[in-house]
Design brief:
This protein is of the alpha/beta class and 200 residues long. Strand 1, helix 1 and strand 2 form a beta-alpha-beta unit. The relative contact order is 0.18. The structure holds glutamine. Glutamine binds next to helix 4.
């Protein structure tokens, strides 16, 4: 763990929109680091897993020897925030994933990949998330997953109208089906930085 006063927040930079997350975090005053190797895990106080393609993030993280150490770090309490593919990577159980696909896990949820089908590849909507303040959250969904089932320890922060969850938190882990890093919505990253500070 970094010893300085300002926490270092890593962004998993194997694939996907990691640059956008680095920019949001830097804008909030965090020290940031792109993470590609297992040795870098000891130099961060929290980790963001970006949106992208979870099957690719899975394959690359295993090929780079990062998957097992990251799984251990999550189990030891490393704060991690996953958006979209990142949420998929944090899920303990997947629906509509190739049989060979693995996740880092940690979130006691069942996540359905590409839950909105090809007819609705992407869409945007607004939510009230009281936890984040009075102003509603504008959410961008792109080939988005959805949380179909969650265990008792999981706190649901937002649901779509059919009742399925799209923002969840469990202890050190935060996940959203959508991409706050794409539309100047920094309150999830602020919430995550509070989780990182609390852990330290
Ligand atoms: N559908 C992608 C996956 O399964 C996630 C899409 C995204 O991250 N925007 O990994």
């Amino acid at each position: 763990m970094a010893g300085n006063t300002t926490p270092v927040v890593g962004v998993l930079a194997l694939q996907g929109d990691f640059r956008e997350h680095l920019a949001v975090l830097a804008g909030l005053g965090a020290r940031t680091r792109a993470v590609r190797r297992s040795t870098e895990l000891s130099e961060i106080d929290g980790l963001v897993i970006p949106g992208g393609e979870s099957t690719v993030i899975d394959k690359l993280s295993r090929a780079f020897g990062l998957a097992a150490p990251l799984r251990d770090a999550i189990a030891s309490g490393l704060p991690v925030y996953g958006t979209c593919a990142g949420l998929i990577m944090l899920a303990d159980r997947l629906i509509d994933a190739p049989a060979s696909q693995q996740t880092f896990g940690g979130l006691d949820v069942t996540v359905r990949r590409n839950a909105f089908g090809t007819q609705t590849d992407s869409f945007e909507t607004d939510f009230a998330i009281p936890e984040l303040g009075a102003e509603s959250v504008h959410a961008v969904f792109i080939r988005a997953p959805v949380v179909e089932q969650s265990g008792d320890a999981v706190e649901v922060l937002a649901r779509i109208p059919d009742g399925r969850a799209v923002a969840v938190r469990q202890r050190n882990l935060l996940g959203t089906s959508f991409h706050p890093e794409m539309n100047d919505e920094s309150r999830f990253h602020e919430l995550f930085l509070r989780m990182v500070a609390a852990r330290r």
